[in-house]
Specification:
By secondary structure, the protein is mainly beta. It has one helix and four strands, in the order ββββα. A hairpin with a 5-residue loop joins β1 and β2. The protein is extended and about 205 Å long.
Length: 395
């Protein structure tokens, strides 16, 4: 016969939260065999699920922001002075006397008189008299006298003497001589020779005799011969010459001096005084009055009048006149020189600069976590009643 094994497990939940699994220990029996007499119950094995705390480490990533320095090369510009040679054309001025002949146009005035007829409108005054009536308001004075009392402040003087110290600037004259240039036209006389040709008359005996005359009687002839004559011409020119003279210059300087003076100080005290006076009060009244008067009225009439007059007409004629004079001429020539100057030059240079930037970094960290795990645990065996014993009272 086949063996049938049946296991009955009882799960009991204890009050403390421990799970107990109870499995009775049965024996295999053959079917149809008589049961033996009741025996003592065998101990049952109990398995309990006990919670067990375990520490589990998990990796947690945190983001940390750090200030990280870094170095950057920046271009900076600085200005420095460098010597530089350059060529300078320096002008040198020289004064040279150069004769210059100029043609000066001198004005020459000529005055002529011309008859000129013109019409002049002359104003002739014409006076007429007109009767004019007017009303005049004449003021008539009316004088009345009134008593008037008034207070007069009579001044009363009091004199006191006080010492007063004052600083007086006393003028002191100083004379110094200063060289003052002035220009004087100095006459310069030059003599030049002028050659002139003059025709002179000379008598020459003729060598050819006319027919019928002897050779001893020669006929004199008059001929004109040019002759050079040298004449000295004196010219006077005025040349400006700079001279110096000593000019006295007076300067006034002030020297402070302390002076003590006794100054009378007069103070005026006003003393009130009552006075009564008779004051004439004049009032004016306007009285109308009719006036008739002859008013002269002057009018002007324009009367044409012919006027003939001699008008001088002056004309200016320019006459050319040659003049030769020594003109001081300033000539300039350029002299090449080498000079040195400081030239600002901008020089770039690389300068390391340390900057700071914020960098995000992931940092792993181990975090301990408590977890509960149910672990089966063997609990000591307990005695449970057999099914036979439980069913005997029912039979």
């Amino acid at each position: 016969m086949a063996m049938c094994v049946r296991a009955v497990c009882t799960v009991a939940a204890l009050a403390s939260g421990i799970l107990v699994l109870t499995c009775p220990a049965g024996t295999a029996q053959e079917t149809g065999t008589p049961q033996a007499s009741p025996q003592a119950p065998a101990p049952q094995a109990q398995v309990a699920m006990v919670p067990q705390y375990q520490t589990v480490y998990q990796t947690v990533y945190e983001t940390v922001f750090e200030q990280q320095p870094y170095t950057v090369l920046q271009t900076r510009y600085r200005t420095e002075l460098r010597p530089e040679n350059y060529t300078v054309q320096r002008p040198v001025y020289e004064t040279v006397q150069v004769p210059q002949t100029t043609t000066v146009m001198q004005p020459q005035q000529q005055t002529t008189y011309q008859q000129q007829a013109s019409t002049v409108w002359r104003q002739v005054p014409v006076t007429t008299y007109q009767q004019q009536t007017s009303t005049v308001w004449r003021q008539v004075p009316v004088t009345t006298y009134q008593q008037q009392a008034y207070t007069v402040m009579r001044p009363q003087q009091q004199t006191t003497y006080q010492q007063q110290t004052s600083t007086v600037m006393r003028p002191v004259q100083q004379t110094s001589y200063v060289s003052q240039p002035y220009t004087v036209n100095q006459a310069v006389t030059t003599t030049r020779q002028v050659i002139e040709w003059i025709n002179t008359t000379q008598t020459v005996a003729s060598s050819q005799a006319p027919s019928g005359q002897t050779e001893g009687s020669a006929t004199p002839q008059t001929i004109t011969v040019p002759q050079a004559v040298t004449r000295n011409v004196t010219e006077t020119q005025y040349v400006p010459v700079t001279q110096y003279r000593q000019v006295p210059v007076q300067t006034v300087s002030y020297i402070p001096e302390q002076q003590v003076q006794t100054i009378p100080v007069t103070t005026t005290v006003m003393v009130p005084q009552q006075q009564v006076t008779t004051v004439p009060v004049t009032t004016y009244q306007n009285v109308p009055q009719q006036l008739v008067q002859a008013v002269p009225v002057t009018t002007y009439q324009n009367v044409p009048e012919q006027v003939v007059q001699s008008v001088p007409v002056t004309t200016t004629v320019m006459v050319p006149v040659p003049q030769t004079q020594m003109v001081p001429t300033t000539q300039m020539r350029l002299v090449t020189e080498t000079a040195t100057r400081q030239v600002p030059v901008t020089v770039p240079e690389q300068v390391p600069v340390t900057l700071t930037q914020t960098v995000a970094r992931q940092v792993p960290r181990q975090v301990a976590t408590q977890q509960v795990v149910m672990v089966p645990t063997t609990v000591p065996a307990t005695y449970a009643p057999s099914p036979t014993a439980q069913g005997s009272p029912q039979q």
